[in-house]
Specification:
The chain has twelve helices and ten strands. The chain is of the alpha+beta class. Helix 2 crosses helix 4 and helix 11 packs across helix 12. The two termini are 14 Å apart. The C terminus is likely disordered.
C-alpha cells in the first residue's frame, strides 16, 4: 500500500510561504521539502546516506541519468534557504482527523476522542538555540540540564494516534499556555481528555468555547464540594478562577471518583477524580467515563512513537539553529502523520483495530519502500 500527498500540494505550500523554486540552484524548494522529510523518516541517518536512500530506487530504474548526490554543504544550505515555515504550513494543511465511527476506540457515544498533553525535544546547546529556547533547570540549585529543550503541546486523535495540531516554544513557556492555543482545532462532537495539571477555569472555558466536551483529571489537592449528588454517585460542583476570590463566576462541572484495583496498594494515589462537561448521568454514566479515561494514555504512546521509534531513542536533534530545529520537528510530525494514515488504511482493509498494527514495522516498511520502490512512500 502506498501513500502520497495530493498532487501539487507541496508546490502550493512552498509558494504560499514565499519560497521560490530556485531552479538555478542545486535543488528546487519542493525537493528540499522531500529531503527534510527523508531526514525524519531515516533518522538519525546523516545527510548523504538519506539522499542515497531517496534516490536508490530511481537509480535502479535508470531515471537519474548523470545526476549525482550533492555535497553535504549544498544540502545544508538548501535546508537553510527553505526554513521551517513550509513544513509547518504543510502540517496544518494535512493534519486532519482520520478515524470514522467504524474505527475501534475512536468514538464514544458519538463523540470523537481526543487527548492533549506536552513533551520536550532535546536540541544542541548552541548560543542561538539557547537564546530561542533556553535550558531547563535540573533540580540541583542553579544548574541547568545538558541540553536546550523545545516544549511541544499536541492534540491527538486517540483512535488513530494522529497528531491533529501542535504548538512549539521554548522550555520556559508552560504547557498550559501552549495547550490553550490548541483550542483552534477543537469543535463540537469531540471529547478532549487531559491530565490533572490542565484543570483551571481559563483553559476549561477556552476549550468549552470551541464546542468540545471535556474529561479531565482533578488534582489531589483540589476541593470540589458536592452541590448536587447524582444517581450514579457522581456530583455537580464548581471550579473557580484564581482571579475570582469572591467566587462569583463559577464554572459548573460534574465530578466522579473511582479507585484503581489490583495495584497491590491502597493509597490516595490510587484514587482518581475526574471533572467533565457531560452533566447527564443517564446519557454518560460515571462508570463508563472512568473506564474511558484510560484512553488518555494513548497520547504517551504517540510521543514514544515519534521520539523513540521514529527519531531514535535518546537522539538529540542535529540542527544548531532555531529555524533548523523547528524544521526538523515539523518534519517528524509530518512523517508520523503519514505513517499513521498508512496504518489506519492498512487496518481498515484487513478489518483490524489500528492498535494491532505495529508502528515500528510500519516505519521499517516505509523506509524499505522508499529505498527499493520509487513512489512507495512518496511525499
Amino acid at each position: 500500500m502506498t501513500w502520497a500527498y495530493p498532487p501539487g500540494l507541496v508546490d502550493r505550500v512552498v509558494a504560499a510561504c514565499g519560497r521560490s523554486e530556485q531552479r538555478r540552484r542545486l535543488l528546487p524548494a519542493r525537493l528540499v521539502v522531500y529531503f527534510v522529510l527523508g531526514l525524519a523518516l531515516f533518522s538519525p541517518a546523516p545527510y548523504l546516506e538519506v539522499m542515497r536512500h531517496l534516490v536508490a530506487g530511481l537509480r535502479g530504474l535508470g531515471l537519474l541519468g548523470n545526476w549525482h548526490v550533492p555535497a553535504k554543504s549544498s544540502l545544508f544550505r538548501a535546508r537553510q534557504r527553505l526554513g521551517f515555515e513550509p513544513l509547518q504550513v504543510l502540517f496544518a494543511a494535512t493534519a486532519k482527523p482520520m478515524a470514522d465511527e467504524s474505527t475501534p476506540g475512536a468514538f464514544w457515544r458519538g463523540l470523537r476522542l481526543l487527548a492533549v498533553d506536552g513533551t520536550c525535544w532535546d536540541v544542541p546547546d548552541t548560543e542561538a538555540n539557547r537564546a530561542a529556547f533556553d535550558r531547563p533547570g535540573n533540580g540541583r540549585g542553579t544548574k541547568r540540564s545538558a541540553f536546550v529543550q523545545v516544549r511541544m503541546a499536541a492534540l491527538v486523535e486517540v483512535g488513530s494516534h494522529a497528531v491533529l495540531d501542535a504548538e512549539l516554544a521554548g522550555c520556559r513557556t508552560g504547557e498550559v499556555t501552549l495547550v490553550g492555543r490548541l483550542t483552534r482545532s477543537c469543535e463540537a462532537g469531540q471529547l478532549v481528555l487531559a491530565d490533572r495539571e490542565f484543570l483551571g477555569v481559563p483553559l476549561w472555558r477556552a476549550f468549552t468555547a470551541s464546542g468540545a466536551d471535556l474529561l479531565w483529571r482533578v488534582p489531589a489537592n483540589r476541593v470540589l464540594p458536592v452541590r448536587k449528588l447524582l444517581r450514579d454517585g457522581s456530583w455537580l460542583s464548581a471550579i473557580h478562577a484564581g482571579t475570582d476570590p469572591a467566587k462569583r463566576d463559577p464554572v459548573q462541572v460534574r465530578v466522579l471518583t473511582y479507585q484503581l484495583k489490583g495495584t497491590g496498594r491502597d493509597t490516595a494515589a490510587d484514587n482518581y477524580r475526574l471533572a467533565t462537561t457531560l452533566l447527564d448521568p443517564r446519557r454518560h454514566p460515571a462508570r463508563q467515563l472512568a473506564a474511558l479515561y484510560r484512553e488518555r494514555w494513548e497520547i504517551e504512546s504517540v510521543f514514544a512513537e515519534i521520539k523513540t521509534c521514529q527519531r531514535g531513542a535518546k537522539v538529540v536533534l542535529s540542527s544548531k539553529t532555531p529555524d533548523g530545529v523547528l524544521q526538523q520537528i515539523w518534519a517528524h510530525l509530518l512523517v508520523h502523520h503519514a505513517l499513521r494514515e498508512l496504518m489506519l488504511r492498512t487496518a481498515a482493509t484487513r478489518q483490524l483495530d489500528p492498535d494491532r498494527i505495529s508502528f515500528t514495522e510500519t516505519l521499517r516498511s516505509a523506509r524499505r519502500s522508499v529505498t527499493v520502490t520509487p513512489g512507495g512512500f512518496s511525499p
